[in-house]
Amino acid sequence: MTNNQQERWTRVKGRLRAEVGEDIFSSWFARMELESVETETVRLSVPTRFLKSWIQSHYAERVLACWQGEEPLVRRIDLSVRSAMMRPAVAAPRPATSAPAVVRSETAPAHFATAFGGSGGFANGHAAAPAASPDAIGGSPLDPRLTFDTFVVGRSNTLAHAAAKQLASARRGDPVMFNPLYVHASVGLGKTHLLQAIAWAGNAGGERRVLYLTAEKFVYGFVSSLRTQTTLAFKEVLRATDVLLIDDLQFLQGKSTFAEFSHTLNAMIDAGRQVVVAADRPPLDLENLDDRVRSRLAGGLVVEMGSFGEDLRLEILQSRVASARSHHADFDVPAPVLAFIARSVTHNGRDLEGALNRLLAHSKLTGQPITMELAEREIRDLVRPQEPRKVKIEEIQRIVARRYNVSRGDLLSSRRTANVVRPRQIAMYLAKTLTLRSLPEIGRRFGGRDHTTVLHAVRKIEGLVGADLALAEEIEAIKRELQD
Which residues participate in the annotated binding site? Predict the structure, then answer.
């Protein structure tokens, strides 16, 4: 390789460092080396498969552009992984006040250590603890529309919004008021919007390291770290963030992944770092998680975001129309049409967005005005029949306890007195008939009982209802109260 080629490579690295910043350059490009330069192809190498995959996925075009800035004839970048046979291992520099560094290896890739402010050395064969930049591990993509400015607040989401705003405005070193913050709601009611708003606010402030991950991305990152033998680096990167946001926790899968999430959750909370979690159900209803994780999640602030009322749906529609007009100035939806959509499309916010998108598409493609007749035709499939109210086991326990003058704690206890046993059996029976929970899950929610105990209670009450008219009427009255 000629001196001229090495000089061009040095200038290319300078361009790359200027474009991506020092942190990202150190994270992903510090150990990239030039192998050869041909007429239209530049051959580069990196020490690990993980590093190769990441650069190819996220920075391939940028590296090529930087080379073309120095050599316009270059059309292709060929990135390979250096093997131990190709290059001798390089001893890590010895930190001034730490234990002797050991040889860098594929099992503890150096790019993690140097990427996040570590010394570049490894003590006892492990990577030095990083001080990670969230950009470096690539959080899930953020939608620029999902900010606090575009979040419409109503009665059903006031508390969740206030908690998220308070958390987002906190500064590094401030005491954590509630940890974790756990937000749950059905699909399309704003959970992801709130989490991404926190991420945008944190990134804008720049003081705290904020990382937003979907459960799927968390699983992918953890499995990839197992495959590439970089699990220690994965753990440390996560735990070096100041605010960790995990979305759609109900999709977390895999025993080892659950264990890693549990360790990360505990480590961050114990270190005073903020964790925010969103899911489609409360912590106690997440059957895949073990009791310790459910308990830790429930020990913070758990907030439910309820269904949108008609007034809030109308405000959301008005906000979205105003936003659309910034790009389509002639887009106009008459007030009666908006009121009709708010009254008719009741399921979730995504259906509201879908209804407006259809009207916008019709307006732009045909040039015809939006009328009530058009709206009725276009959103016909979004008008869903009213679904029966979902009943929760906690509500069953609360109402049954109140009706029979016992406490909810009595229902969950091991007491066997007659005034507790019968209400407990009724509550178990209602949990089985009014919810989709399995017998083992119901047993767990009633003080950790075996599923056979629940089955006995269900059969007992079924038999009594057929013979005791007064009991049957009582149970029907409880059902009506739960479903109103």
Answer: 188, 190-192
